[in-house]
């Protein structure tokens, strides 16, 4: 069995904007009864407290029959979000020339450095340009380096409609959707 997660990430929120944006999203979900207002410890597999599901949590998912959802964690600080699905061949490509990076050690060092300091540039072997790690394209959203994310623990599949509605609350920002099982 194991535990599943689905994370909606805002790739463009700045450290300054993330707490405000998180509040506006959670406020709307609370108003719709999707989550409860008060985040509590023990509702998700995260060190952070999570918002327990609200009375209308089923409005966020495709098929509520399978559900015993746990909490939703709102991350508002620098975080490396990841997905964990088998049978994929993740790649990372340059945001300028779209060539796939071939040095996985360099990538993991850059991710680690960004996590530690908030700054890391990755040079592209193909075009010679350098771009910040969060700007690189991570195939199938296997990774997202960002300051804002909402992690749903053990929820049935979030519906396209719910994800689109959430993205509308983050206008002009790119979002990533990461899923996994641990
Ligand atoms: Zn390049």
Q: Could you describe the 3D structure shown?
A:
The strands form 4 sheets. A 4-stranded antiparallel sheet has the order 2-9-1-10, covered by helices on one side. It has a two-stranded antiparallel sheet with strand order 3-8. It has a two-stranded antiparallel ribbon with strand order 4-7. Helix content is 20%, strand content 23%. It has 182 residues and is α+β, with helices and mostly antiparallel strands. It folds into 2 domains: 4-80 and 145-181; 92-140, no CATH class. Bound molecules: zinc ion.
Give the class from helix and strand content and strand pairing: alpha+beta
β-strand amount = 15-25%
Q: How many strands, which pairing sense, and closed or not: the largest β-sheet?
A: 4 strands, antiparallel
Q: Name the average pLDDT.
A: 94
Radius of gyration: 17 Å
Note the overall shape: globular
Distance between the termini: 9 Å
How many β-strands, per DSSP?
10
Stretches with pLDDT under 50, minimum 5 residues: none
Give the number of helices: 3
């Amino acid at each position: 069995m194991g535990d599943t997660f689905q994370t909606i990430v805002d790739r463009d929120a700045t450290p300054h904007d993330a707490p405000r944006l998180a509040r506006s999203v959670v406020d709307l979900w609370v108003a719709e009864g999707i989550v409860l207002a008060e985040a509590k410890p023990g509702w998700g597999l995260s060190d952070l407290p999570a918002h327990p599901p609200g009375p209308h949590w089923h409005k966020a998912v495709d098929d509520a029959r399978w559900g015993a959802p746990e909490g939703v964690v709102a991350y508002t600080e620098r975080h490396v979000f990841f997905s964990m699905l088998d049978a994929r061949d993740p790649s990372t490509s340059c945001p300028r020339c779209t060539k796939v990076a071939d040095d996985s050690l360099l990538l993991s060092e850059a991710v680690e450095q960004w996590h530690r300091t908030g700054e890391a540039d990755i040079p592209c072997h193909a075009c010679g340009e350098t771009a910040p790690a969060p700007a690189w394209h991570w195939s199938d959203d296997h990774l997202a380096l960002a300051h804002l994310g909402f992690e749903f623990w053990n929820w049935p599949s979030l519906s396209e409609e719910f994800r689109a509605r959430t993205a509308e609350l983050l206008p002009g920002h790119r979002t990533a959707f990461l899923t996994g099982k641990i």
